[in-house]
Amino acid sequence: MAIAKAERLMNLALCLLGTRRPLSKRELRESIEAYLEAGGDDSFNRMFERDKDDLRELGLVIETVESLDGEIGYLARRDSNRLPPITLDAEEAAALGLAAKVWQQARLAGAASGALQKLRAAGLPEDVDPYGAHSALEPRIPVHEAAFEPLMLACRDRRPVVFDYRKATAAHPEQRHVEPWALECWRGHWYLAGWDRDRGAERVFRLSRITGKVRSRGGRFTVPVPDVVTVRETVASWAGETADRSARIRLRTNAGYPLRAKATAVRELGDGWDELEIPYGHGLDAWLVEFGPDVVVLEPAELRADVVDRLRAVAKG
Q1: Angle at 226 (CA atoms; ends 222, 229), nearest 5 degrees
Q2: 103 falls in which pLDDT band (50, 70, 90)?
Protein backbone atom coordinates (compact mmCIF):
# COMPACT_ATOMS: atom_id res chain seq x y z
CA MET A 1 0.00 0.00 0.00
CA ALA A 2 2.83 2.43 0.87
CA ILE A 3 4.53 1.76 -2.48
CA ALA A 4 1.25 2.27 -4.35
CA LYS A 5 0.64 5.61 -2.64
CA ALA A 6 4.20 6.77 -3.26
CA GLU A 7 3.83 5.93 -6.94
CA ARG A 8 0.50 7.75 -7.10
CA LEU A 9 1.98 10.85 -5.47
CA MET A 10 4.93 10.76 -7.85
CA ASN A 11 2.65 10.50 -10.87
CA LEU A 12 0.50 13.38 -9.64
CA ALA A 13 3.57 15.54 -9.00
CA LEU A 14 4.94 14.79 -12.48
CA CYS A 15 1.60 15.71 -14.07
CA LEU A 16 1.41 19.01 -12.21
CA LEU A 17 5.03 19.90 -12.91
CA GLY A 18 4.90 18.86 -16.53
CA THR A 19 1.86 20.85 -17.63
CA ARG A 20 1.93 24.38 -18.99
CA ARG A 21 -1.73 25.01 -18.21
CA PRO A 22 -3.90 24.14 -15.22
CA LEU A 23 -5.30 20.60 -15.30
CA SER A 24 -8.77 19.88 -14.01
CA LYS A 25 -9.62 16.98 -11.71
CA ARG A 26 -11.13 15.18 -14.67
CA GLU A 27 -7.94 15.49 -16.71
CA LEU A 28 -5.77 14.37 -13.82
CA ARG A 29 -8.02 11.38 -13.22
CA GLU A 30 -7.75 10.33 -16.84
CA SER A 31 -3.94 10.68 -16.75
CA ILE A 32 -3.18 8.64 -13.61
CA GLU A 33 -4.03 4.94 -13.57
CA ALA A 34 -4.55 4.76 -9.81
CA TYR A 35 -7.28 7.40 -10.07
CA LEU A 36 -9.04 5.49 -12.83
CA GLU A 37 -9.20 2.49 -10.50
CA ALA A 38 -10.46 4.55 -7.58
CA GLY A 39 -14.11 3.66 -8.19
CA GLY A 40 -16.78 6.31 -7.76
CA ASP A 41 -16.39 10.07 -7.86
CA ASP A 42 -16.53 10.44 -4.08
CA SER A 43 -13.72 7.94 -3.60
CA PHE A 44 -11.59 9.69 -6.22
CA ASN A 45 -12.25 13.15 -4.79
CA ARG A 46 -11.20 12.06 -1.30
CA MET A 47 -8.06 10.37 -2.66
CA PHE A 48 -7.13 13.38 -4.80
CA GLU A 49 -7.60 15.89 -1.97
CA ARG A 50 -5.45 13.77 0.36
CA ASP A 51 -2.74 13.42 -2.28
CA LYS A 52 -2.78 17.14 -3.02
CA ASP A 53 -2.43 17.96 0.70
CA ASP A 54 0.39 15.40 1.06
CA LEU A 55 2.33 16.94 -1.82
CA ARG A 56 1.93 20.41 -0.34
CA GLU A 57 3.09 19.07 3.01
CA LEU A 58 6.18 17.73 1.24
CA GLY A 59 6.89 21.21 -0.08
CA LEU A 60 5.39 21.20 -3.59
CA VAL A 61 3.80 24.56 -4.44
CA ILE A 62 0.48 23.72 -6.13
CA GLU A 63 -1.55 26.57 -7.57
CA THR A 64 -5.33 26.53 -7.82
CA VAL A 65 -6.62 28.40 -10.88
CA GLU A 66 -10.19 29.08 -11.96
CA SER A 67 -10.82 29.30 -15.71
CA LEU A 68 -13.19 31.72 -17.43
CA ASP A 69 -15.94 29.09 -17.45
CA GLY A 70 -15.55 28.49 -13.70
CA GLU A 71 -13.65 25.19 -13.89
CA ILE A 72 -10.95 24.69 -11.23
CA GLY A 73 -7.52 23.57 -12.40
CA TYR A 74 -4.18 22.76 -10.78
CA LEU A 75 -0.53 23.10 -11.72
CA ALA A 76 2.91 23.32 -10.10
CA ARG A 77 5.14 25.85 -11.85
CA ARG A 78 8.76 24.80 -12.10
CA ASP A 79 10.07 28.25 -11.20
CA SER A 80 8.03 28.15 -7.98
CA ASN A 81 9.39 24.73 -7.03
CA ARG A 82 13.06 25.26 -7.76
CA LEU A 83 15.36 25.87 -4.79
CA PRO A 84 19.00 26.98 -4.79
CA PRO A 85 21.62 24.87 -2.98
CA ILE A 86 21.07 25.09 0.79
CA THR A 87 24.06 25.89 3.00
CA LEU A 88 23.58 26.69 6.67
CA ASP A 89 26.13 27.54 9.32
CA ALA A 90 25.70 26.77 13.02
CA GLU A 91 24.03 30.11 13.84
CA GLU A 92 21.51 29.81 11.01
CA ALA A 93 20.67 26.24 12.05
CA ALA A 94 20.22 27.41 15.64
CA ALA A 95 17.80 30.11 14.45
CA LEU A 96 15.74 27.48 12.60
CA GLY A 97 15.70 25.28 15.67
CA LEU A 98 14.48 28.22 17.74
CA ALA A 99 11.73 28.88 15.20
CA ALA A 100 10.65 25.24 15.38
CA LYS A 101 10.34 25.48 19.17
CA VAL A 102 8.08 28.52 18.82
CA TRP A 103 5.40 26.42 17.12
CA GLN A 104 5.31 23.52 19.62
CA GLN A 105 1.73 24.38 20.62
CA ALA A 106 0.36 24.63 17.05
CA ARG A 107 -0.35 22.35 14.12
CA LEU A 108 2.82 23.76 12.57
CA ALA A 109 4.91 21.70 15.01
CA GLY A 110 4.88 18.70 12.66
CA ALA A 111 5.65 20.82 9.61
CA ALA A 112 8.53 22.55 11.41
CA SER A 113 10.00 19.22 12.46
CA GLY A 114 9.64 17.85 8.93
CA ALA A 115 11.32 20.95 7.49
CA LEU A 116 14.36 20.47 9.71
CA GLN A 117 14.57 16.82 8.65
CA LYS A 118 14.57 17.91 5.00
CA LEU A 119 17.37 20.37 5.75
CA ARG A 120 19.35 17.51 7.26
CA ALA A 121 18.92 15.61 4.03
CA ALA A 122 19.96 18.71 2.06
CA GLY A 123 23.28 18.98 3.85
CA LEU A 124 22.73 20.51 7.28
CA PRO A 125 25.97 19.86 9.21
CA GLU A 126 25.72 16.72 11.33
CA ASP A 127 27.44 18.39 14.28
CA VAL A 128 24.70 21.03 14.49
CA ASP A 129 21.71 20.26 16.70
CA PRO A 130 18.81 22.53 15.64
CA TYR A 131 16.87 21.52 18.76
CA GLY A 132 19.79 22.03 21.11
CA ALA A 133 19.60 24.41 24.03
CA HIS A 134 20.75 27.82 22.80
CA SER A 135 19.06 29.91 25.48
CA ALA A 136 17.42 29.71 28.87
CA LEU A 137 14.25 30.99 27.20
CA GLU A 138 11.62 28.67 25.76
CA PRO A 139 9.78 30.79 23.18
CA ARG A 140 6.22 29.83 22.28
CA ILE A 141 3.48 31.50 20.30
CA PRO A 142 0.09 30.19 21.46
CA VAL A 143 -2.43 29.51 18.71
CA HIS A 144 -5.90 28.93 20.15
CA GLU A 145 -8.06 30.32 17.34
CA ALA A 146 -9.67 27.73 15.09
CA ALA A 147 -9.36 30.18 12.17
CA PHE A 148 -5.53 30.14 12.29
CA GLU A 149 -4.87 26.99 10.27
CA PRO A 150 -7.35 27.55 7.40
CA LEU A 151 -6.20 31.17 7.09
CA MET A 152 -2.53 30.15 7.15
CA LEU A 153 -3.18 27.68 4.31
CA ALA A 154 -5.23 30.27 2.40
CA CYS A 155 -2.37 32.79 2.68
CA ARG A 156 0.06 30.17 1.44
CA ASP A 157 -2.10 29.05 -1.49
CA ARG A 158 -3.40 32.53 -2.37
CA ARG A 159 -7.05 31.49 -1.97
CA PRO A 160 -9.86 33.96 -1.21
CA VAL A 161 -11.88 33.18 1.92
CA VAL A 162 -15.21 34.03 3.51
CA PHE A 163 -15.86 34.25 7.24
CA ASP A 164 -18.17 35.89 9.77
CA TYR A 165 -16.48 38.68 11.71
CA ARG A 166 -17.68 40.54 14.78
CA LYS A 167 -16.23 44.01 15.23
CA ALA A 168 -15.57 45.19 18.75
CA THR A 169 -18.27 47.86 18.36
CA ALA A 170 -20.88 45.52 16.86
CA ALA A 171 -23.32 43.24 18.65
CA HIS A 172 -23.54 40.74 15.78
CA PRO A 173 -21.03 39.38 13.24
CA GLU A 174 -21.20 40.12 9.55
CA GLN A 175 -19.85 38.22 6.56
CA ARG A 176 -16.53 39.34 5.06
CA HIS A 177 -15.00 38.34 1.71
CA VAL A 178 -11.23 38.60 2.02
CA GLU A 179 -8.09 37.95 -0.01
CA PRO A 180 -5.70 36.90 2.78
CA TRP A 181 -2.13 38.20 2.65
CA ALA A 182 -0.37 37.35 5.90
CA LEU A 183 -0.82 36.50 9.56
CA GLU A 184 0.95 38.52 12.26
CA CYS A 185 1.10 38.13 16.04
CA TRP A 186 1.02 41.29 18.18
CA ARG A 187 0.81 41.35 21.99
CA GLY A 188 -0.26 37.70 22.07
CA HIS A 189 -3.08 38.19 19.54
CA TRP A 190 -3.15 36.97 15.94
CA TYR A 191 -4.20 39.31 13.11
CA LEU A 192 -4.94 38.67 9.45
CA ALA A 193 -3.97 41.34 6.93
CA GLY A 194 -5.72 41.19 3.58
CA TRP A 195 -7.92 42.80 0.95
CA ASP A 196 -11.57 43.23 1.92
CA ARG A 197 -13.51 42.79 -1.32
CA ASP A 198 -16.73 44.24 0.08
CA ARG A 199 -15.05 47.49 1.12
CA GLY A 200 -12.51 47.63 -1.68
CA ALA A 201 -9.63 48.31 0.72
CA GLU A 202 -7.00 46.55 2.81
CA ARG A 203 -8.11 45.58 6.28
CA VAL A 204 -6.77 43.79 9.35
CA PHE A 205 -8.87 41.26 11.26
CA ARG A 206 -8.27 39.92 14.73
CA LEU A 207 -8.63 36.13 14.62
CA SER A 208 -10.35 35.92 18.01
CA ARG A 209 -13.26 37.90 16.52
CA ILE A 210 -13.82 35.47 13.64
CA THR A 211 -16.89 33.34 14.35
CA GLY A 212 -17.77 30.05 12.71
CA LYS A 213 -15.73 28.38 9.99
CA VAL A 214 -13.42 29.96 7.45
CA ARG A 215 -14.62 28.92 3.97
CA SER A 216 -12.40 28.89 0.89
CA ARG A 217 -13.52 30.36 -2.41
CA GLY A 218 -12.28 29.65 -5.93
CA GLY A 219 -10.68 32.16 -8.23
CA ARG A 220 -7.62 34.37 -8.14
CA PHE A 221 -6.81 37.44 -6.10
CA THR A 222 -8.09 40.65 -7.65
CA VAL A 223 -5.32 42.91 -6.28
CA PRO A 224 -1.55 42.41 -6.01
CA VAL A 225 -0.19 41.17 -2.69
CA PRO A 226 2.09 43.78 -1.07
CA ASP A 227 5.59 42.90 0.04
CA VAL A 228 6.12 41.58 3.56
CA VAL A 229 7.29 44.90 5.01
CA THR A 230 4.15 46.69 3.86
CA VAL A 231 1.88 44.01 5.31
CA ARG A 232 3.68 44.12 8.64
CA GLU A 233 3.42 47.89 8.78
CA THR A 234 -0.29 47.63 8.06
CA VAL A 235 -0.79 45.11 10.85
CA ALA A 236 1.26 47.24 13.24
CA SER A 237 -0.83 50.29 12.43
CA TRP A 238 -4.18 48.55 12.87
CA ALA A 239 -2.97 46.79 16.04
CA GLY A 240 -2.16 50.12 17.63
CA GLU A 241 1.62 50.07 17.24
CA THR A 242 1.78 53.30 15.23
CA ALA A 243 1.06 56.43 17.27
CA ASP A 244 0.91 60.02 16.06
CA ARG A 245 -0.34 61.77 19.24
CA SER A 246 -0.80 61.25 23.00
CA ALA A 247 -3.65 60.30 25.31
CA ARG A 248 -4.15 60.77 29.06
CA ILE A 249 -5.67 57.98 31.13
CA ARG A 250 -6.25 57.12 34.77
CA LEU A 251 -4.94 53.69 35.76
CA ARG A 252 -5.32 51.81 39.02
CA THR A 253 -2.14 51.46 41.03
CA ASN A 254 -0.42 48.08 40.54
CA ALA A 255 -2.48 47.37 37.40
CA GLY A 256 -1.99 47.65 33.64
CA TYR A 257 1.74 47.01 33.47
CA PRO A 258 1.77 46.79 29.62
CA LEU A 259 0.31 50.31 29.58
CA ARG A 260 2.89 51.52 32.07
CA ALA A 261 5.64 50.15 29.86
CA LYS A 262 4.34 52.30 26.98
CA ALA A 263 3.78 55.43 29.07
CA THR A 264 5.83 58.55 28.36
CA ALA A 265 4.85 60.12 31.70
CA VAL A 266 3.36 58.79 34.97
CA ARG A 267 1.94 60.86 37.86
CA GLU A 268 0.60 59.51 41.14
CA LEU A 269 -2.90 60.77 41.92
CA GLY A 270 -3.45 59.00 45.23
CA ASP A 271 -6.50 56.98 46.31
CA GLY A 272 -5.16 54.01 44.32
CA TRP A 273 -4.94 55.78 40.93
CA ASP A 274 -2.17 57.05 38.64
CA GLU A 275 -2.32 59.33 35.61
CA LEU A 276 -0.46 58.18 32.49
CA GLU A 277 0.36 59.80 29.19
CA ILE A 278 0.59 57.13 26.48
CA PRO A 279 1.05 57.11 22.68
CA TYR A 280 -2.28 57.24 20.85
CA GLY A 281 -2.68 55.47 17.53
CA HIS A 282 -5.23 53.36 15.70
CA GLY A 283 -6.36 50.44 17.84
CA LEU A 284 -5.66 51.99 21.25
CA ASP A 285 -9.36 51.98 22.15
CA ALA A 286 -9.57 48.20 21.64
CA TRP A 287 -6.49 47.71 23.80
CA LEU A 288 -7.77 49.89 26.62
CA VAL A 289 -11.06 47.98 26.74
CA GLU A 290 -9.13 44.84 27.65
CA PHE A 291 -8.18 46.41 31.02
CA GLY A 292 -11.82 46.89 31.98
CA PRO A 293 -12.54 49.02 35.10
CA ASP A 294 -8.82 49.55 35.79
CA VAL A 295 -8.66 52.25 33.08
CA VAL A 296 -10.49 55.56 32.66
CA VAL A 297 -9.80 57.69 29.57
CA LEU A 298 -9.39 61.38 30.32
CA GLU A 299 -8.58 62.73 26.87
CA PRO A 300 -8.90 63.07 23.94
CA ALA A 301 -12.68 63.01 23.84
CA GLU A 302 -12.88 60.85 20.70
CA LEU A 303 -10.80 58.11 22.34
CA ARG A 304 -13.03 58.20 25.41
CA ALA A 305 -16.11 57.91 23.18
CA ASP A 306 -14.63 54.98 21.25
CA VAL A 307 -13.85 53.11 24.47
CA VAL A 308 -17.38 53.73 25.79
CA ASP A 309 -18.88 52.45 22.50
CA ARG A 310 -16.81 49.28 22.71
CA LEU A 311 -17.79 48.66 26.33
CA ARG A 312 -21.47 49.13 25.45
CA ALA A 313 -21.12 46.65 22.58
CA VAL A 314 -19.58 44.11 24.95
CA ALA A 315 -22.36 44.67 27.48
CA LYS A 316 -24.98 43.98 24.78
CA GLY A 317 -23.25 40.66 24.01
Answers
A1: 160
A2: low
